[in-house]
Design a protein that fits this description.
With 238 residues, the chain is mainly α. The chain has 12 helices and no strands. It has one domain. Helices cover 78% and strands 0% of the residues.
Length: 238
């Protein structure tokens, strides 16, 4: 087994463990879902300038919903479990590394959200606004992990940009559509096609990725400090 295939398998295993934790009675599911509802609105406002661009909408949805949070990963990861032997054998190492990084980013995001949901439960917080979010964010802390999360977003974005240039990979993924659906891992196939298509359609992938990196770093520093950040308008750098 190649090192890329091994990294992919390890990342998948870690995601499976988190999925099992969600089903335990001590998991703060109600608070978790409430937190993610608030974060989706925050994403929409922080990146309103990109959401308004038709060419950037698919990339926004892919990055900020598929990779940066949400519990909808479980069905897709079940697909990955079934498809993993085939993917490890057929996909090039570069694509397997990108998938590993995507799974790693997803897991970091999910775990940080669980930490925040636990604080929401402990403090019996029912309503979330910018000030409360910042306070819970500071309570959880984990600055190094937050930085790692944002660095991974940047790294994965640039890697996806590079993968879209590989014509043979696009053809390979497209050719696998029907076999994937027949084999029962159509959600995974959609995830792969969605990611490649979203970045291929971006007019300026570099601008998109660097904008996410800069904005999320700035927000992280503000939330970890004493200055609360609202979600009334997008953070603009360009």
């Amino acid at each position: 087994m190649s090192s890329a295939a091994n990294a992919f398998r390890q990342a998948l295993h870690a995601g499976n463990e988190f999925a099992r934790a969600i089903d335990r009675p001590d998991f703060p599911l109600e608070e978790y879902l409430r937190l993610q509802d608030w974060q989706r609105e925050r994403f929409r406002l922080t990146y309103a300038d990109f959401v308004a661009l038709e060419s950037a909408q698919p990339a926004c949805q892919f990055f900020l919903e598929e990779l940066y949070g949400g519990l909808g990963f479980r069905q897709r990861d079940e697909d990955v479990n079934r498809a993993e032997p085939i993917m490890s054998r057929l996909l090039p190492d570069r694509a397997l590394w990108a998938l590993s990084e995507a799974l790693k980013l997803q897991l970091i995001s999910l775990e940080l959200d669980r930490n925040m949901a636990e604080v929401l439960r402990q403090k019996s917080i029912q309503l979330i606004d910018g000030s409360i979010y910042a306070g819970v964010y500071r309570t959880v802390g984990r600055c190094q992990v937050r930085e790692q999360q944002i660095e991974l977003i940047r790294k994965l974005g640039h890697e996806l940009q590079a993968l879209t240039q590989l014509t043979f990979l696009r053809g390979m993924v497209k050719a696998a559509r029907k076999p994937a659906q027949v084999a029962g891992y159509g959600r995974l196939q959609n995830f792969l096609e969605k990611g490649l298509s979203a970045f291929r359609n971006l007019q300026d992938p570099q601008l998109f990725v660097e904008s996410i990196y800069q904005r999320e770093m700035r927000l992280m520093k503000q939330w970890l400090g004493d200055e609360p950040v609202t979600v009334q308008s997008p953070v603009s750098y360009y």
